[in-house]
Amino acid sequence: MDSEGLDLVFQPKFNCARGTVCGVEVLARWPGASAPWQRPDCFIRLAEREGLAPELDLHVLKKALRQLARLPAQTRRALKTVSINVSAVSAQDARFLQSVKGLLSSRPHPKLMFELTETAPIHQLSVVRKGFEALSHYGIDLSLDDFLCGHATLNLLTALPVREIKIDKRDVARLGTPAGYGRVAGLIDLARQGEISVTAEGVETREQWQALRALGCDSAQGFWLSRPLPLAEVVTLIGQLHEDARAVRPDLWSEGVSQHQLRPRISRA
């Protein structure tokens, strides 16, 4: 972090009804990672364990805002939200919350969604609630990442000002089974009751994409739609989809958008 060594990639989020990019999730990557502990799921938990999560989350936020500030106007308009992962450790840290307020009050910024990750427990729920209520005045919404996994429990829906839940990729992977389909349908219905939006992660097949659309899921992300991309490639992707009117017919997609094939191929059958 001190050497600006961590890289950022951006996972596009697609509007399920329209098939257009509606946001991105910011992801940290260790350049040239070779050791197992350099994988994101490992070094992020390591940061939580060593008390470095607030510093890591603030580092990612600062770096993302610098990169996003250089986006062309068309891309900024397309990205309704920019999602950034925030550890529960950070959300309970008063210095982190104050640093975020100072950072956002000093510069223009896109609409932000802080995804509260499921990897650490919340011991001071009132602190987290008050913190996110205060951050809402700076244009930050709260999302629960990997809902009903780890520490992302049901009670957080009523205890915190949640605006989005994210369906875990393991639940999306089971959409092809009656039990899995019913679970995802139940999560979407639950969110609808609270006027909370839903994003599904880990979409890897056309069948999963179609099932989520049929269930009324708001947005989705995953390798079938697009791998995480450098920001310059996100700009290219949005530009190409904007030019291609067929992007508004997601029901005709035969393949998702990938890092190597930016334009979705359309089945005429």
TrEMBL record:
Residues 1-242 form the EAL domain. This is EAL domain-containing protein. SUPFAM superfamilies: EAL domain-like. InterPro entries: Cyclic-di-GMP_PDE-like (IPR050706), EAL_dom (IPR001633), EAL_sf (IPR035919). GO terms for molecular function: cyclic-guanylate-specific phosphodiesterase activity.
